[in-house]
Design brief:
Protein name: NAD-dependent protein deacetylase sirtuin-2
Shape: elongated
Number of domains: 2
Cofactor: Zn(2+)
GO molecular function: histone deacetylase activity, NAD-dependent; metal ion binding; NAD+ binding
Number of strands: 9
Radius of gyration: 22 Å
Distance between the termini: 53 Å
Family: Belongs to the sirtuin family. Class I subfamily.
Structural class: alpha/beta
GO biological process, one term: regulation of developmental process
């Protein structure tokens, strides 16, 4: 106990750690009552609900805690299919695996009985065969500028890490190939990326060296819980967010989709996607599912939809921010791709000093 105020310091620390959760819960309740009763006058942070308005807000210096939420759409230009696009999406091209339904390939119960389809697909999509996209490097650029608080990703391709994000920058909401574990509750032995890669590319079904049970990469299947870190970080990050950028996701899978509703009521939200997403029906919006993003109504005040590919949207935003030249600092294969899209000179020596 403190000798002056007689307070228990442990209790004080616990209260401090609980503050973000209480703030988040209060924001949710405030949004619920104000939406239901028509009360409250939300602060309008953006001068205009356009990509230009978002850029001006970032340049104002008031935006210091950006959160990114990304899905499979940010990796399609790398050659990795998304899940739900008609005709080209992953679920539309799984006939060769003779599945009872497309989603079964990621169902934990089906996997334990029939692991062969998943590991055959894993050979095709295994990390290390693809390169990061413009969008991945734009997120890295946000980090380098000191603006990125965290990136929440639905992807399992690890391209965020390849682009330069580190473990603390990233919440891999649907897991990762970086580690694998035995599926037996009595064992749970851990294996690294190299061990799993050797098994997958030798056409072996990975079996535990200790108990001979299946070994599964630490990606989240339907029927499994999301990583604990997803929930603990969510409670800390979203109440502090001052700009949410959502890219390449249909916002259909919970609980990830519901994150858009966890930012404060005044926090601007930018969607860069091929179509609008996250527009929940009024009842689900009130309950906090889907986020209830509002791009078009007379009451819209903070949500911006930029309809384009994720790469084009990131390039457009970088242009507006005056960051185009910084892309030359990234690996040369990316520089060559970017130089084709840029009206500026293609060699780094022809650019002005970026620190000037």
């Amino acid at each position: 106990y403190c000798v002056l105020c007689r307070n228990n310091p442990t209790t004080a620390v616990k209260r401090k750690l609980q503050e973000p959760q209480r703030v988040c819960e209060m924001d949710f309740l405030r949004n619920l009552f104000s939406s239901t009763l028509g009360l409250g006058s939300p602060d309008k942070v953006l001068d205009e609900l356009t990509l230009e308005g978002v850029a001006q807000y970032i340049k104002s210096g008031k935006c210091k805690n950006i959160l990114c939420m990304v899905g499979a759409g940010i990796s399609t230009s790398a050659g990795i299919p998304d899940f739900r696009s008609p005709g080209t999406g992953l679920y539309a091209n799984l006939q060769k695996y003779n599945l009872p339904y497309p989603e079964a390939i990621f169902q934990i119960d089906y996997f334990k009985k029939h692991p062969e389809p998943f590991f055959a697909l894993a050979r095709e999509l295994y990390p290390g065969q693809f390169k990061p996209t413009v969008c991945h490097y734009f997120i890295k650029l946000l980090k380098d500028k000191g603006l990125l608080r965290r990136c929440y990703s639905q992807n399992i391709d690890t391209l965020e890490r390849v682009a330069g994000l580190e473990g603390d920058d990233l919440i891999e909401a649907h897991g990762t190939f970086y580690t694998s574990h035995c599926v037996s509750f009595c064992c749970r032995a851990e294996y690294n990326l190299d061990w799993m890669k050797e098994k997958i590319f030798s056409d072996d079904i990975p079996k535990c060296d200790k108990c001979n049970s299946l070994v599964k990469p630490d990606i989240v299947f339907f029927g499994e819980n999301l990583p604990v870190r997803f929930f603990t970080s969510m409670k800390m990050d979203f109440p502090r967010c001052d700009l949410l950028i959502v890219m390449g996701t249909s916002l259909q899978v919970q609980p990830f989709a519901g994150l858009v509703g966890r930012v404060s009521k005044s926090c601007p939200r930018l969607l860069i996607n091929m179509e609008k997403a996250g527009q929940a029906d009024p009842l689900l919006g009130l309950l906090g599912f889907g986020g209830g993003m509002d791009f078009d109504s007379d009451k819209a005040y903070r949500d911006v939809a930029h309809i384009s590919t994720c790469d084009d949207g990131c390039l457009a935003l970088a242009d507006l921010l005056g960051w185009k030249v910084l892309f030359l600092l990234f690996p040369r294969p990316f520089n060559l791709f970017y130089s084709k899209l840029s009206p500026y000179p293609a060699t780094q020596t022809e650019f002005p000093d970026i620190n000037a």
